[in-house]
Specification:
Shape: elongated
CATH class of the largest domain: Alpha Beta
Distance between the termini: 62 Å
Oligomer: single chain
Largest sheet: 9 strands, mixed
Number of strands: 16
CATH topology of the largest domain: Rossmann fold
Bound molecules: flavin-adenine dinucleotide
CATH architecture of the largest domain: 3-Layer(aba) Sandwich
Number of helices: 8
Helix content: 25-40%
CATH superfamily of the largest domain: HUPs
Radius of gyration: 21 Å
Number of domains: 2
Structural class: alpha/beta
Strand order of the largest sheet: 9-8-7-10-6-1-4-5-11
């Protein structure tokens, strides 16, 4: 049995879906004792959900500084202190933008091994698997020494209802307020829709989309599908889409149930960010495009015909069938 602290990211009092996946990852081993770690002001609002999704204990971390969101050093210091206070064997978070930064800081303070982008964790043996070399290989690593600091690939572990006691404890962490690093402003790059790292379905566009205006056809399809819109780096660099939408090695890592790549050639750097999607569909007008070697379903055609046709077909399929069975 191991005692695992799970770093819970919340937004507006709601636990992020990817954080529920991190709880499920910690709960894989039924014997594990799972501590949900979050900063004080979110604990009250989130405790019901955390109990429902497998937290044995909920730790509301408080620090002398009331609002520590601008101070990543202080957050990491408080989390590293929680390792000692609760005798944690590991801290598990999500390898998203916040997690990558915070987990690395915790590992540095605690002098602990850090593995990001984990796709599999075996707690009894300490063996983890992670994507390597832009997704070309998978590394299998054995961790020596504790605690382990692990970041899981977003959405790789589906959330699972597993009700637990979830007693709340308040932990007053005494960490010096560091002013070495202060976040003064956060500018939210937006796709105008759901975040790709959280989405179950993503429809992405590449260079071939041709303009920001043309992304409208992907957005229309996304709204029928309940999907987020993503983009390749070529589309982002050309100014067709915001960086928040970029999928790949230097963008976001995603693991949706369905990934539809439109006018994307399938470079290794793009593939690195989406290869763990459960089903990959490619729309491309070049039969030799590398993406056709990597997808589950390929549609050979012009995206400007295929995508609107898909939107119309999905719309028809969803329309209420009034009087259909009434003779
Ligand atoms: C260090 C590094 C990091 C990188 N990180 C990333 C990253 O994070 N994400 C990323 O995506 N890339 C990344 N890249 C860039 C990557 O190498 C590719 O250049 C990029 O992914 C290509 O984008 P694309 O597929 O949209 O464009 P292209 O490679 O130009 O492909 C366009 C595709 O559209 C097809 N097409 C053209 N017209 C149509 C049409 N009308 N209908 C249907 N299909 C059509 C073409 O056949 C072609 O296959 C990185 C590169 C480097 C060196």
């Amino acid at each position: 049995m191991a005692r695992i602290g799970v770093l819970i990211e919340a937004r507006g009092g709601e636990v992020k879906k990817t954080a529920l996946g991190a709880l499920a990852a910690a709960r894989q081993d039924r014997e594990n004792e799972v501590y949900a770690l979050l900063f004080g002001d979110h604990a009250e609002a989130c405790k019901g959900v955390l109990r429902q999704y497998g937290a044995d204990r909920i730790v509301a971390i408080r620090t002398p500084e009331a609002d520590i969101s601008p101070f990543p050093d202080v957050q990491a210091g408080a989390l590293a202190a929680a390792i000692d206070r609760f005798q944690l064997d590991a801290i598990l978070g999500v390898s998203g933008q916040t997690g990558r930064d915070l987990l690395a800081r915790i590992a540095s303070i605690a002098g602990a091994p850090l593995v990001l982008d984990c796709m599999d964790i075996d707690f009894p043996s300490g063996i983890v698997k992670k994507s390597h070399f832009s997704g070309k290989t998978t590394a299998t690593l054995r961790l020596n020494g504790r605690p382990w600091i692990l970041g899981i690939r977003p959405n790789i572990f589906p959330e699972r209802i597993d009700p637990r006691q979830g007693d709340t404890v308040v932990y007053e962490a005494t960490v010096p307020t560091s002013k070495r690093l202060v976040i003064r402003e956060v500018k939210q790059g937006s796709s105008g829709g759901p975040d790709v790292s959280e989405a179950e379905i993503i429809i992405s566009g590449g260079r071939a989309v041709g303009s920001a205006e043309n992304f409208r056809i992907l957005k229309e399809c996304a709204s029928v599908l309940g999907a987020a819109v993503g983009a390749s780096r070529a589309a982002v660099d050309a100014g067709f889409a915001s960086h928040a939408m970029q999928v790949g090695q230097t963008g976001k890592t995603v693991s949706p149930r369905l990934y539809i790549a439109c006018g994307i050639s399938g470079s290794v750097q793009h593939f690195a960010g989406m290869k763990t999607a459960k089903v990959i569909v490619a729309v491309n007008n070049d039969p030799d495009a590398p993406i056709f070697q990597k997808c589950d379903y390929g549609l050979l055609g012009d995206l400007f015909e295929v995508v609107p046709a898909l939107t119309r077909a999905l719309g028809r399929a969803q329309a209420p069938r009034i009087g259909h069975n009434e003779g």
